[in-house]
Design a protein that fits this description.
The chain is α+β, with helices and mostly antiparallel strands. The protein folds into three domains: about 5-60, Arc Repressor Mutant, subunit A (Orthogonal Bundle); about 85-255, 2-Layer Sandwich (Chloramphenicol Acetyltransferase), CATH 3.30.559.10; about 275-285 and about 300-360 and about 370-435 and about 450-530, Chloramphenicol Acetyltransferase, CATH 3.30.559.30. It is built from 15 helices and 15 strands. A five-stranded mixed sheet has the order 6-7-8-3-13, covered by helices on one side. Strands 9-15-14-12 form a four-stranded mixed sheet, with helices on one face. InterPro entries: CAT-like_dom_sf (IPR023213), Condensation_dom (IPR001242). This is Condensation domain-containing protein. It comes from Paraflavisolibacter caeni. One of its GO terms (molecular function) is catalytic activity.
Length: about 550
């Protein structure tokens, strides 16, 4: 098989599915991007890095007669009558296994909204019911027979919006928060339950609390804007007694699972897996200093700490990234890896991140679990400058993007020989720069909606830094395991990360072993502590004994 040509075709197809037209004019690549299309900067970087390959491919062929075939690896709607059992996607299979082993409350995706105004409860219930009908994945159950898991699509008419009397919580915010948290944390029975549930608490006739929980096995962050858009349109349509204006769905999630199983096998899978096997073979577990002894078996008890990076520094990071020919994510990842290097003293640093895995047009409008996880591994040395580490991280990230279709679950199977129950395989920490589509404002007629605070009490990994670009600068949150770290340690790490970002902007040429990450206050404390000559010795000691 000619993988050079396949790689070029993959990039051209990926570009086409994202609204980018690539043409060759006078030996130069031209990109045509519609003004209303929001393109992932990582994809543009990938095209740029493979510019020579694409030019070579286009130059050697009569491109006027060879267009990117719309059916190239296309996901088609399956004839369910010909399929005895629908398989799980690789990602679903992993979550199903975790659920069987230890439960999966850490994979609940909640939202709590306060609704003020005249709510049409029938319209709200019908809107949810229609969403359940439209998206099979939300009414999928998972069964097992003879050691083989499979999915079964149940009817939508069994789903109900649960309306509860919440009058007792009207003047008791603390009890209300505890009650909503209990509703969110109620386990899903994946063999019986719908994967979206909604409770409506009636505080009084014109004030309600809506508690919605999805299971990650049926959704991801990119599913949220889809759900909000459809709920808004359907509520409006039912309230106004008119047809809803929603696009039809070409395929369902089960069709994607079938396609994935058929496409990623044999020679195709072996070739794609060979990259990950070579890249991750022998990866070391990260040994961060912890506040508490590491349990023999990891658990998911966790908490969140929020933080902000000021607008000036955020803008400087963007400008610096552009000048270095990298994405903002790559700059943040390089700094994060250096912080982990300084904290652990290890040179082998592996960090996880997530990618949307929605490059195919057929899945754009689907609610479902498409997101994939990548393990990004680099070897660092103290003599490297930040700019050198950044270029290394850039190449690692781009190479990983090229192989992002390989399910993380298959990578773990291929690379990990022996599992350590006290740690996650291949990486223990993550960095995620959220680039999900903007969630549209949820409007339910004249009802006023406000989000309620949700207490996060679980963590999927030892440490995850989440960052989001906003007009006010980068906003962040750190998810951490409370059986390993204290809140004070996490807040200190956040301060060190922030200081390190300042340092790499000011002195990117310095060796990473001397880049300053201590805060100004910590530097002052160290300075005065080391320079002080006054020492209190025990009075009864002699000079000889001292």
């Amino acid at each position: 098989m000619e993988y050079v040509s396949t790689k070029a075709i993959d990039l051209l197809y990926l570009a086409k599915q994202n609204g980018i037209e690539i043409i060759l004019e006078e030996e130069q690549l031209q990109l045509k991007i519609p003004h209303n299309v929001n393109i992932d900067e990582g994809l543009l970087q990938l095209i740029k890095e493979n510019k020579k390959l694409i030019i070579e491919f286009l130059s050697n062929r009569n491109w006027k007669s060879i267009k990117v075939n719309k059916n190239y690896n296309r996901i088609n709607r399956s004839d369910r009558n010909l399929i005895e059992r629908l398989p799980l996607s690789f990602a679903q299979e992993r979550l199903w296994f975790i659920d069987q082993l230890e439960g999966s409350v850490q994979y609940h995706v909640p939202a709590v909204l306060r609704l003020k105004g005249a709510l049409d409860k029938e319209a709200l219930s019908s809107a949810f019911q229609t969403i359940i009908e439209r998206h099979e994945v939300l009414r999928t159950i998972f069964l097992e027979e003879e050691g083989q898991s499979y999915q079964y699509i149940q009817a939508a008419d069994g789903w109900k919006l649960t309306v509860l009397d919440g009058a007792r919580f009207k003047q008791d915010a603390e009890s209300l928060q505890h009650y909503t948290q209990a509703l969110i944390s109620r386990p899903f029975d994946l063999s019986r339950d719908y994967l979206l549930r909604a409770y409506l608490l009636e505080l009084d006739i014109e004030e309600h609390i809506l508690v919605v929980t999805l299971h990650h096995i049926a959704s991801d962050a990119w599913s949220t804007p889809i759900l909000v858009r459809e709920l808004r349109e359907l509520y409006s349509a039912y309230s106004e007694n008119r047809p809803a204006q929603l696009p039809s769905l070409e395929i369902q999630y089960a069709d994607y699972a079938l396609w994935q199983r058929n496409y990623l096998q044999g020679e195709v899978l072996e070739h794609k897996l060979s990259y990950w096997k070579e890249k991750l073979e022998g990866v070391e577990a990260l040994q961060l200093p912890t506040d508490y002894p590491r349990p023999a078996v990891q658990n998911t008890k966790g908490a969140f700490v929020n933080f902000n990076i000021d607008p000036t520094l955020s803008e400087q990071l963007n400008t610096f990234s552009q000048r270095q020919g990298v994405t903002l994510f790559m700059t943040l990842l390089a700094a994060y890896k250096i912080l982990l290097y300084r904290y652990s003293g290890q040179s082998d640093i592996s960090v996880g991140t997530s990618v949307a895995n929605r490059s195919r047009k057929e899945v754009e409008g689907l609610i479902g679990f498409f997101v994939n996880t990548l393990a990004l591994r680099d070897q660092l040395t103290g003599e490297q400058s930040f700019t050198e580490v950044l270029q290394q991280v850039k190449q690692t990230t781009l190479s990983a993007y090229e192989h992002q279709e390989v399910p993380f679950e298959k990578v773990v199977e291929e690379v990990v020989r022996e599992r350590d129950l006290s740690r996650s395989p291949l990486f223990q920490v993550m960095l995620v720069l959220r680039n999900t589509p903007e969630v549209p404002r949820l409007q339910l007629g004249e009802v006023e909606l406000t989000g309620e605070v949700i207490e996060h009490s679980t963590a999927k990994f030892e440490l995850t830094f989440f960052l989001t670009e906003t007009p006010q600068g980068l906003q962040g949150a750190v998810s951490y395991r409370t059986d390993l770290f204290s809140a004070a340690s996490i807040e200190r790490m956040i301060a060190h990360f922030n200081q390190l970002l300042h340092s790499v902007i000011e002195q990117p040429q310095l060796p990473i072993s001397v880049l300053q990450y201590l805060t100004p206050l910590e530097q002052q404390q160290l300075l005065h502590g080391f320079n002080s000559c006054e020492v209190a010795y025990p009075k009864h000691h002699t000079l000889v004994s001292l």
